[in-house]
Amino acid sequence: MFHACVIDYENGWDRHIALIKFSYNNSHHTSIKAAPFEALYGPAYDRQKSYANVRRKPLEFQPGDKVMLKVSPWKGVICFDKRGKLNSRYIGPFKVLAKVGTVAYKLKLPRQLSRVHSMFHVSNLKKCLSDEPLSIPLDEIHIDVKLHFVEEPVEIMDREVKWLKKSCIPIIKVR
């Protein structure tokens, strides 16, 4: 295969080595009854998959169940007056209205989240285990269409300039 490629691409054969390796490793070989890549890494993948599936549980919700909705924590974003590891990862609880397809659910969202689509993949939901209402007020929190928190500066509290050998870095503390 390599010899044929060198003949076809006389001057530029070195640029096609990755393509040759990919083609060879993914083509079915009758002697081993599999592709070389699959024969080499297939058993390891199966073993890792079996280890991962031991703790994985399929989630299913019924209409009327209460669920928490996962929000994306982004660097430097204000999340419910907490910072770093203490940021809220979920908001809610929200009521499940219906199951859509095999892995999607329609939720009843408050009007503050009217810009967000009401259907979510099961991986973005977590069962709400508390009976008491633990709703977090969404009035002072701004969430965009993709469920990312929108950060809005209130005031500039302090300014400072950090001098290095050949440059300076302005540092501004914002609330």
Q: How would you describe what is shown here?
A:
The protein has two domains: 2-55, no CATH class; 58-146, Roll (SH3 type barrels). Strands 4-3-2-1-5 form a five-stranded antiparallel β-sheet, with no helix packed on it. It has a two-stranded antiparallel sheet with strand order 6-7. 21% of the residues lie in helices and 24% in strands. It contains three helices and seven strands; from the N terminus they run H-H-H-E-E-E-E-E-E-E. With 175 residues, it is of the alpha+beta class. The chain has helices at residues 2-8, 17-26, 36-55, and strands spanning 66-70, 90-100, 104-108, 119-121, 125-127, 156-163, 168-174. Residues 64-128 form the Tf2-1-like SH3-like domain. One of its GO terms (molecular function) is RNA-directed DNA polymerase activity. Keywords: Nucleotidyltransferase, RNA-directed DNA polymerase, Transferase. This is Reverse transcriptase domain-containing protein. It holds the Pfam family SH3_Tf2-1.
- The gyration radius over C-alpha positions equals 27 Å
Say what the CATH topology of the largest domain is. SH3 type barrels
- Spatial order of the strands in the main sheet? 4-3-2-1-5
Number of domains: 2
What's the CATH first level of the largest domain?
Answer: Mainly Beta
Low-confidence stretches: 74-81
* CA distance, first residue to last residue: 64 Å
Number of helices: 3
Q: Architecture of the largest domain in CATH?
A: Roll
- Let me know the largest β-sheet: 5 strands, antiparallel
Shape label: flat
Secondary-structure-derived class: alpha+beta
Q: What string, H for helix and E for strand, traces the elements in order?
A: HHHEEEEEEE
Please state the average pLDDT score.
79
Question: How many strands in all?
Answer: 7
Fraction of residues in helix: 10-25%
Strand content: 15-25%
